[in-house]
């Protein structure tokens, strides 16, 4: 692995660790839809986990069309953001996984969000795993690098 | 706090508000020593202006576009130019302006004043970076004074200040600037006083010139110099220079005039006056507790202190980098005029004549020994011209910048590069060369037999119109394949240029862009923004700017011809080295010549620098790369990375030229290009100039473009935004 790729992946991992929430984009019938989700990722960044009630629009959307994208950034809502903020967009395919079988993944998720333990236990809460294909890291306003993870 | 303080209020306001320069003057004044009538716009006004107008956000955006440490000097100048233009275009909020204008009107009326910087921290105790921020002489009228206050504020981000930002502690969040408004003292004589001679602790130094002391400080006029006893003030020795000129306030800064005969023969100071300067200097030392570096002037026989600061080492000389050299590139209008005369009437004709002489000499008839000497001679000629290039040609390029600044100050255009429109179409030598290439290509296009012959590497006999024009081209501009790089490329010979001409012929005729902007109207607006009595000056600066723009390119073409002369001699030497008929003795002689050896120079040397394959790897690719927009337009094409000069010869119509920096001797492929991308930054570099002449999208300062873009990849160059987008697979 080149230093450049390694460095970029490290930067993405650092950003993901520093942030609790991501914007998830789904779509159905040509209508995109964005939601805020609490997330967690494994160190290799190949998957992206979140929980959602199975009555939500995002759930319905991703069941109908599993191609989704996520966005994580560290903006602080000030003028400096335009250059200092780092933003990562990811694309991939989402699927509902079994909480009982994927216990390790759920532990990873709850390790980061212990407050959601009760929420995770509800039978109507779905555990979603996105198999990530690519990440796009944007910094300094318009510099964009693209990384394939699958 | 008031928006304008008089000198009695400055001590109370504190150094943090009024800056070092004003605070010192206020202190001197409080001890009853005469200083010019002084007012101060405190830092608070600067802060309120920046905050209320949201200018702070825009400056932050500009400074952070790219890490400053990655910028070349030219890019830093561009950044500074853009920031300066923001200040010019951002009005002072109405409430502040009303208040400030009222006070300026009351205190200054219609009197001419000097508007100077007074940054807290400037003239600090340990190092001095005097001159990084701007001062303006001879400003009058409330509106004009406010405009110049903004320009002094803007100079907090001057290119020089950005270069020395670390030493200055320049920080957009905390840096501030106060402005001094001073009565313009008519200087009969002026000078400096050094309380402690740096080379002898028992001595003090007085230097003096007729007129303004700016010329002394800038080193333009050699002063009278007296070394005094530090304790008694008695003169130990006097250096008597040849006195010819004096400086007086001019259109931009200062102008020089000849001294009257009696002045030229008399030192500017009498013994009594020397003593008075020393005595006042000693008093200042008592007031501030340290030996002082004092600037003073005498008007109507009255001594007035303009400035005093502790003697410090200068920050500039302590650094061992090139920044202090860059600072010398800032030339005054007067200096540039002299330089122009030297370049246009002496250096360029000498270069042309030198290159012609080299071309005419028959190298084949020289003995081995004579050829060897000739190579040495040509190497020396070339080296000497390179030195002149750095000493005179590069500084003359500042003429473009001076015009840009004068234009922006006068017109305050929305686009800080609007002035470039008035510089284009100056008849660049490289454009002349390119139109000759186009003419040759047209001959091929219109003559099928000629095309077939050339494709089969048959060059028409002498006397054929194409051959005649080609020979005349090679005479004028050299064999392109020789002039674009090291002598090793010469072996491509005429075939290389034929290949290039065939490529040109394969595309429809293309001319340079038709100028869509009405330059007559633009010029008219520029000239009319000056008062009638200053319009000649406006014309002169424009002329200087255009000449600077033209010569910036032409000098490289001429230097390229001299370099080609050196290559011709080296090539002749190389030919003889491999010629079986050359005697062993001659080979021994030839091998003594610089640049000749039996093993061919490693032609791939350049290649190895670039073939850093680890940087480009499959799992990561750049989607967008940001540089500076240097030529408007948008275009897509195959990226053609120019790693070695040979790469140019296989450049194809519609390719995007991607390189470290376009050398003027490379610009002949630009008409074939869809767009130009350069790693090297700046709006005024050759690639950008030529791209604009052809109306091509151009991006400069795209750091690491050569590593991030893969040769052959499809890229889109957005010359409006300065963004290169690389085509990647679908999501």
Give a verbal description of the structure.
The complex is a heterodimer of chains A (150) and B (731). Chain A is of the alpha+beta class. Chain A has a single domain (3-148), classed as Pnp Oxidase, Chain A (Roll). Helix content of chain A is 29%, strand content 43%. In chain A, strands 1-2-3-6-5-4 form a six-stranded antiparallel β-barrel. The radius of gyration of chain A is 15 Å and the shape is globular. The mean pLDDT of chain A is 93. Chain B has 731 residues and is an alpha+beta fold. Helices cover 47% and strands 16% of the residues of chain B. Chain B has 29 helices and 23 strands. In chain B, strands 16-23-22-18-19-20-21-17 form an eight-stranded mixed beta sheet. A six-stranded antiparallel beta sheet of chain B has the order 10-9-8-7-13-14. In chain B, α6 (94-108) crosses α7 (142-154), α16 packs antiparallel against α24 and α16 runs parallel beside α25 (584-590). Chain B starts with a strand and ends in a 5-residue tail after the last strand. Chain A binds chain B through residues 1-5, 8, 79-80, 82-84, 91, 133-134, 136, 138, 140-148, and chain B through 56-57, 60-61, 64-66, 614-615, 617, 619-626, 721, 723, 728, 731.
Secondary-structure map:
The complex is a heterodimer of chains A (150) and B (731).
Chain A lengths: L2 H16 L2 E8 L2 E10 L6 E7 L3 H8 L2 E7 L7 H4 L2 E11 L5 H10 L4 H5 L3 E15 L3 E6 L2
Antiparallel strand pairs in A: 1-2, 1-4, 2-3, 3-6, 4-5, 5-6, 6-7
Chain B lengths: L4 E2 H7 L1 H16 L7 E4 L1 H10 L2 H9 L9 H17 L4 H15 L4 E6 L8 E2 L6 E5 L2 H13 L4 H5 L1 H4 L9 E6 L5 E6 L8 E8 L3 H4 L6 E6 L5 E5 L5 E5 L4 E5 L2 H4 L6 H18 L3 E8 L2 E9 L2 E2 H4 L4 H6 L4 H28 L7 H29 L1 H14 L17 H17 L2 H8 L9 H13 L2 H4 L9 H13 L13 H10 L6 H44 L5 H7 L14 H6 L9 E7 L1 E4 L2 E8 L3 H5 L6 E4 L15 E4 L7 H8 L4 E3 L4 H4 L5 E5 L4 E4 L5
Parallel strand pairs in B: 4-15, 18-19, 19-20, 20-21
Antiparallel strand pairs in B: 1-2, 2-6, 3-5, 3-6, 7-8, 7-13, 8-9, 9-10, 11-12, 13-14, 16-23, 17-21, 18-22, 22-23
Helix pairs in contact in B: 1-2, 4-5, 5-7, 6-7, 15-16, 15-24, 16-24, 16-25, 17-24, 18-20, 18-22
